[in-house]
Design goal:
- This protein is α+β, with helices and mostly antiparallel strands.
- 22% of the residues lie in helices and 23% in strands.
- It contains six helices and 14 strands.
- The strands form three sheets. A six-stranded mixed sheet has the order 4-5-8-7-9-13. A five-stranded mixed sheet has the order 1-2-14-6-3. A three-stranded antiparallel sheet has the order 10-12-11.
- The longest helix is centred in the first third of the chain and has 15 residues.
- It is globular.
- This is Purine nucleoside phosphorylase.
- Pfam families: Cu-oxidase_4 (PF02578).
- Belongs to the purine nucleoside phosphorylase YfiH/LACC1 family.
- Keywords: Hydrolase, Metal-binding, Transferase, Zinc.
Length: 264
């Protein structure tokens, strides 16, 4: 379980310190290369046994059984799943298509999988309502962060705090002109989050800056960020962009998760 994992297997936000939560790295698991070691992706070609053990370690830290560490079939959407006392719990690996979860139940843990996209963990200030969102550029532009906040409000959350976990940062995130135009068509103010890349006709996109901007615009005042770039940090994080630059191949994913009402 968590007490056997090496130092550095998990990062936490001071603003969420009243709750069990973690932005877990790729350290502290059982998977072998190229999934080494804490691969938590059920969609990878890693063995089911290894992924189950890895997710079990995360669940153990959060104080829940592995079957209630809930995740989604992520699709880069703005869709949010709300879990209440009447909500059924799906089997591991069969989560609905969506990119965020919220709950007021303290017997569940909510997790999102990333390997460059932005994992965002949310909590009401009393810890009674929590959320987890997967925010790539498409999801962020589409409004997944605002939709998560709205879903939490429907459960009675008042003031909400949020933390953005490790994700790809501007120096590592070169994009084409078409992607920039697609973002600006929906979100014209996002021009401030692009700067020219060394390669002609390309740009560097500030995904964390844009996500935090959307969160502030949605009314959140209590915001923080882990501030780590996944692409260059080979030791601690999986990265789709790193894999792409290396010519492809298999990849694992890290998990970020939170549980309501569980003071550490």
């Amino acid at each position: 379980m968590a007490d056997r994992a090496p130092r550095g297997w998990m990062l936490q936000a001071d603003s969420l310190s009243m709750l069990r939560h973690g932005f877990f790295t790729r350290l502290g698991g059982v998977s072998s290369a190229p999934y080494n070691t804490l691969n938590c992706s059920l969609a990878s070609a890693d063995t089911a046994e290894n992924v189950a053990q890895n997710r079990g370690r995360v669940a153990g830290f959060l104080g829940v059984s592995p079957d209630v560490l809930l995740g989604l079939t992520q699709t880069h959407s703005a869709d949010v799943v709300t879990l209440t006392s009447k909500s059924p719990v799906w089997p591991t690996g069969r989560g609905p298509k969506a990119d965020a979860l919220v709950t007021n139940r303290d017997d569940l843990a909510l997790g999102v999988i990333t390997a460059d996209c932005g994992p965002v963990l949310f909590a009401s200030t009393d810890g009674a309502v929590v959320g987890a969102a997967h925010a790539g550029w498409r999801g962020a532009v589409g409004g997944v962060l605002e939709a998560t906040i709205a879903a939490m409000a429907s459960l009675g959350a008042g003031e909400v705090t949020a933390c953005l976990g490790p994700c790809i940062h501007q120096p590592s995130y070169e994009v084409g002109a078409a992607m920039r135009e697609e973002v600006l068509d929906t979100s014209p103010e996002a021009g401030q989050f692009f700067m020219p890349a060394p390669r002609s006709g390309h740009f560097l996109f500030d995904l964390p800056g844009y996500c935090l901007h959307r969160l502030r615009r949605a009314g959140l005042c209590r915001l923080s960020t882990i501030g780590l770039d996944t692409r260059p940090d080979v030791a601690r994080f999986f990265s789709h962009r790193r894999r792409t630059l290396a010519g492809g191949g298999a990849i694992g994913h890290q998990i970020s998760a939170i549980r309501a009402g569980s003071v550490i």
